[in-house]
Amino acid sequence: MGLWTKKSIAVLQAEAAGESTEHTLRRALGALNLTTLGIGAIIGAGIFVLTGTAAAKFAGPAIVLSFIVSGFGCLFAGLCYAEFASMIPIAGSAYTYGYATLGEFVAWIIGWDLILEYLFGASTVAVGWSGYFTAFMQQLGITMPTTFTSSPYYYTDVAEFDPVTKALLHPAGFSHTGAIVNLPAIVLIALMSTLLVIGIKESARFNNFIVILKLTIVLLVIGFGFMYVNQANWHPFIPPNAGEYGHYGWSGIVRGAAVVFFAYIGFDAVSTAAQEAKNPQRDMPIGILGSLAICTVLYILMSLVMTGLAHYTDLDVPHPVFVAIEKAGPALAWLGGIINIGAIAGLASVVLVMLMAQPRIFYSMARDGLLPPVFGKVHPRFKTPYITTILTGIVAAVVAGLFPIGLLGELVSIGTLLAFVIVCGGIIMLRYKSPNLARPFRTPLVPLVPILGILICGYMMTSLPWATWERLIVWMVIGLGIYFFYSRSHSKLARAEGSA
Q: Are 247 and 241 in contact (CB under 8 A)?
């Protein structure tokens, strides 16, 4: 049973073609659904939450450049994803692609890594949603106690001091906030998980409606916000480095890019729905690249407006768009309530897509024998992986209820970047080992494009703090323990090769 056992493309394509009524997911998504799924995941935390944090702490107004750096990394990775998704239209995303090109051991690492991306991603966005929801209720005259609307813990990788009094605000590491649990975040995850159990088509319809709503609101903020920009807020455009790596200057731009990279993981989530696409060979590349292109342009424009309306140091809050609009004064006051409504709905759709993606990774891993069979069970009526959807929802709710958004965002970013690096490497390997395979979509300029994807994503990984790397290493050690104690001996492919 070799660690490098690969699952042949032919076997994967045969699985994708299988239409067992009991164990196959329902093919119900077209190109438009896939594109809106991508937009639903991409436009959310990046615009409504993490842009403010990354601008305030790392890049200043140059957060615009951070989005461009991240966008290029995603473009190169997205082109590689599009080729794989059109060739292997099966649930599993990067996990499945790794199994086909780099072997079972690497596939397990990717699958375990993707839990960081999707499960913790859903938790991160739910925390941001809670901030906007609380602000919206405040506007309605309902004050919700912070004891039950915020994380009981605050985390920072460096000690934070008051800029005026120089008093210590937060020591490095974890500190207690006095809160008990973030209850709104938990309730949101419970509702989205319930919708996902009911069905993919129903979930897609809900997402399509929300995408239209939040695109409208984003365009309103960009259009009217540019009219009230104070250009003085853009100076200095790249704040001078504060004396340590990642705090302003060019290193801050790269650090900011690694943090806001979290905002782009929606197109990756599209690839997990390949087995539910009606015509995956044509529609998957459209969904992946279309959603990425639309959202990159909107991100750049939105970050310009936000840092133009408010000084970047004022944006380190859970609801930075609302704060930016407030800085414009009474002229844009009418937008405040609309933004909160859009963020509440928009972030909910991001949580929906993240919670949709993770169970489908579990589903594929269980079908390969790397996880217990219960993880691959499909509901006989709804045709959804209901057990893993419920399990994912429970864990995500606990994480969202207890941990702060900054810590979760960096964990998700490093997990996503690692998955992208491996997918780009897989394209190079497959081109050289199997050049004659039918490829409905071909990544252009191979090996240049995947190499650039590896370099940019790898560079952004190096900009994340060592504490984030430590957590990734601990997470991977846990995953390797599960692989060697359970998955390796239960692998269907390895057992089939051993009996042969």
A: yes
